[in-house]
Design brief:
- This protein is α/β, with parallel strands linked by helices.
- The protein has a single domain, classed as Rossmann fold (3-Layer(aba) Sandwich), CATH 3.40.50.
- Helices cover 33% and strands 18% of the residues.
- Strands 1-4-3-5-2-6-7 form a 7-stranded mixed sheet, sandwiched between helices.
- A hairpin with a 2-residue loop joins β6 and β7.
- The longest helix has 18 residues.
- The protein is globular, with a radius of gyration of 17 Å.
């Protein structure tokens, strides 16, 4: 397995040159299942590996993407995203993974390892704000996490115009992208993102646009009526 670590950080200014090429199509993949997903605990930056179901989730995602002509596979630095990315890259025949730290999960601070119920018991007012809006702080401010994720997508988009690229990340980070593009408010931001699902975003001259999603469950496709929010999911 080969890794290429990006030397540019998502916070660096990007010069977006006008190009006749089409937009970059970024297939955002949520990593596969881990033990802490089954236990419904906030994972955050904890480096937990995929379980057996997690590898099956990765295979399903890889098969969905097998025919799109991926030219690059990006991943956050945690084992669960790297393992998912490797399965996707192997299926697509992409020889190298590119580690991009902007794709890493939200830092949940003192909530990491807790269930939502435990977080609510420990820090009720902060938990209520977190559930109600994507702009309130947990460990890392959600607005900061949202901007670094969008910056990562812009960086990928600038590097890979008119290409199909996979980027493996985490549920909350994909939700924050959808929230920014769709301008969701309040609890609408809790869009269900299934493990191993694929959400397609096009980036054209630095502007992301939500195209659609696969594998997020019946009634949960982008552009469909709002799906019910699973209020108990970490």
């Amino acid at each position: 397995m080969h890794f290429a670590v990006s030397t540019a950080t998502p916070s660096e200014p990007q010069r977006l040159a006008i190009s006749p090429l089409g937009p970059c199509r970024i297939h955002l993949v949520r990593h596969g299942t881990t033990r802490m997903n089954i236990e419904n605990r906030y994972r955050g930056r904890r480096d937990v590996p995929l379980d057996a179901q997690g590898y099956e989730d990765a295979v399903h995602a890889a098969r969905r993407l097998s025919g799109v002509g991926l030219t690059a596979v990006y991943t956050g630095p945690l084992r669960r995203t790297i393992a998912t990315a490797q399965v996707v890259a192997d299926e697509a025949g992409v020889p190298d993974l590119r580690i991009l730290h902007g794709l890493v999960n939200l830092d949940y601070g003192s909530w990491e390892g807790l269930t939502p119920a435990e977080a609510a018991d420990r820090d009720g007012p902060a938990y209520a704000l977190y559930r109600a809006s994507p702009l309130h702080a947990v460990g890392e401010r959600l607005a900061v996490a949202q901007e670094r994720m969008l910056a990562a997508l812009r960086l990928i988009g600038e590097r890979h115009r008119d290409e199909n690229v996979a980027a493996i990340s985490h549920a909350v980070m994909i939700r924050l992208v959808i929230t920014a593009i769709e301008r969701l408010e309040g609890e609408e931001w809790r869009v269900p993102i299934e493990r191993g699902s694929v959400t397609l975003v096009e980036v054209d001259h630095g502007e992301p646009r939500l195209v659609g999603a696969q594998g997020v469950g019946p009634g949960h496709l982008i552009g469909s009526p709002r799906a019910p929010v699973r209020m108990g999911e970490a």
